Hints:
- By secondary structure, this protein is of the alpha/beta class.
- The protein has eleven helices and ten strands.
- Helix 6 packs across helix 11.
Amino acid sequence: xxxxxxxxxxxxxxxxxxxAAQAQAVNSGTIRIIVPSPPGSSSDLGARLIGEKLxxxxxxxxxxxxxxxxxxxxxxxxxxQAPADGRTLFMGTTTTHVANAVLRRKLPYDxxxxxxxxxxxxxxxxxxxxxxxxPVNTVAELVAYAKANPGKLSVASGYVSARMAAEMFNxxxxxxxxxxxxxxxxxxxxxxxxxxxxxxxxxxxxAQAFLKSGKLRALAVTTPQRTLTAPNVPTMAxxxxxxxxMIAWGAFFVRAGTPAPVIARLNAxxxxxxxxxxxxxRMLDAGSEVKPGTPQALGKMIxxxxxxxRRLAEVAHLEISD
Length: 322
């Protein structure tokens, strides 16, 4: 009996020790969330909402550090150079972890090697938008108009995911909308509303006010299924573009080399926060659908997306920039 009592005591002690280690997995001190977009953006709002909840459950200060510019490269580089202790989270995006890997010849960070995935946060549909003065109401009408008026339509690209969506559209429809690059989605949308450019792929959250006022018209979303935020807007596939899919996403990362218990603790807390009814609804109100998950699933998705985008870039002969 003495042996079994000792064994039971050892098991209890081990369990308590592991629980204590997990509880202390995130080093004490302020946690920083680096966001590659300006204050007020959808990524920023999501980071602040989640950061507020994370501060409560961890009992540690959480601050949001906005580092916009250069397609997220400045923010990603800063996150990749942060200590691997779990106290610096990076709100990565499709742009920072997929598009830049495909469309940039040189990056000061490696999206796969330099980061450890923690969890997906949410996905956001891009939406095909046109100036309301353009005499089209469907994707089919836009394609027909573009073919009947070659060289007369241009498409604004406020970020690289939107640029890729436009290239996918050109390839699928057999048209040649002229790409007009912008330094941000706001500037791109301003010119589409003003009529300087006729078409763009943007996000529903940023376009809501213009859609309600009638200055923009939404033709289709780029997700495989209709979105909860705009259930009346058809998908590109429903609109005669079978197989067309472009999903923008956000996700949390830490620097590669961060201890596994730290990542596990962050994943557990963040998945619970992101999946809560309050956060789910507030993210939905901002145009995003929450998709928390495992680090392994996020890591696989990034590798798969990079391969998919690279094939598309080769077929479309996209220019690779420095």
